[in-house]
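Recall that a protein's primary structure is simply its ordered list of amino acids. Everything else, from secondary elements to tertiary packing, is in principle encoded there. The following example makes that idea concrete.
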Amino acid sequence: MYRTRPQDEGRLCSEFRFSQAFTQQYELGEKIGKGAHATVHIATDRVTGERVAVKVMPKQLGPNGFLDPHFVRRVRNEVDIASHLCGSLNVCFFHGAYESDAAVHLVLELLSGGPLWDRISSNSYGERAAARLVREVLRTVAQCHSKGIMMRDIKPHNFMFATQAEDSPLKAVDFGISVFCRPGEVIKQRAGTRIVMAPEVVRCRYGLKADLWSVGIMAYMLLTGRLPFPFYERLFVSRQKVPADEMYAEILHAPLDFESPPWDTLSADAADLVALLLDRDQERRPTAKEALKHRWLQDAEGSADGEDVPLNRGIVQRLQRFGTYGRLKQVALRTVANHIPTDSTTIADLRGIFLELDPSDSGRVPYTRLQQELEDGTYTVSSAEARQLLGQLAMTEDGSITFTEWVAALMDWSKMYESSEWDVLVERAFHAIDKDGSGTLTADELELVLCGDEGCQAPDDLDAAMREADLLDAEGGIGLEQFRALLAGEIGDRLDLFETRLPSNMESYSGTMDSTMDSTMYGTVDSDHT
């Protein structure tokens, strides 16, 4: 469930080796949320003036004076998962982790639209609006599952709107109890919030599809404003306490209500998808990718986000996909891209669009020009989101993006993977990184390609990249076959897992931040697990 190097199992530590430069980069401001283990503050970037949210977690020490091992696993797991997913616009952007002697600081995108729970509590949604939100949640789940991440606590409190606008983007904000879980892997530890807990979680034997049950509960709530279980009336209407064993019994056995209003006025397609997601037999329950293809979601306004989106209209999708690959894989793909012949037909379309931005054929485009392209109205992307998407691209010293970087980020790598060129390109890239010709990429060589001649700013940067790439046992370095596996993993992620952000999806989203904040944001207020 947790990605830990074998040699680190059971090892006591006094620090995470995160950057200690928080106070130099940010000015901490007002507190906007509080829980048992963390507080959330607004902070301001001292250089750019950008406002962010900061989750402050006081360090928990064991009786021996070292960091509590459970606290270490939980924090590192949350940081690793947030880092892996932050390239997606369906997830609250993660700026980075910092630490001082007393606390860990997680710097996050500042969202101002409040949690989904607040809007469900005030009213149920119409079908089209509900379908859009269910599709966004399912995209997030599909992205997580494609990377072997189980969210485990999918509930309306853990999704926040970016702004107060009615059609604001919805983003996942809390991965505190999420875990790494491969397809077919079984987890035996009950975790999560009871009202969205799948039957197999109650039985303490579950896998990735438990997340789909939770999505089904959220979809039911969006459409009806209530839960499908009898205990709903006592818990939320009469405000009575319901014993855990009674809740578990109803989750396992109670008939689910698809008869009471408004089900008599909702479409058969809406009921069909919710019923499929709430199938107590997890083997019959669809995967997130399968659920995204359901006709109720395909009928939803603005759902044309598939693989057939033209390249020049799918740039935001491709940037998101590249952003979720992980730093080590991004570096590896850059090296592969650098060895693709300039006259290769596989990059002809990418070259054509790049030349529109670089008419003098200089081989580079100013960062500011690309940012302008994202913000000119072609896409419904805020300025902050444009910076997030482009910030994962490597820039030259004069602030430009090279054509090689353009190819690495926007290439349909699955097609290249199937071509006869692939194996040769991978070997050339491997040998380009293997400076000493040893046949193994050493820690020093990896740090050089990740962080440059000056080295990584924080000691954990290289370890985090290795954890992200699931190469924890590569203590002696990475061989050619591991390098091949790194590049092949996730290479088939479909574009329709990511939002196009074309105007037809969210015409009024401007990304301006409202001052209204919510104390339950970022998962800091402790759930009563009901």
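The CA atoms of residues 16 and 76 lie 8 Å apart. The chain has 22 helices and eleven strands.
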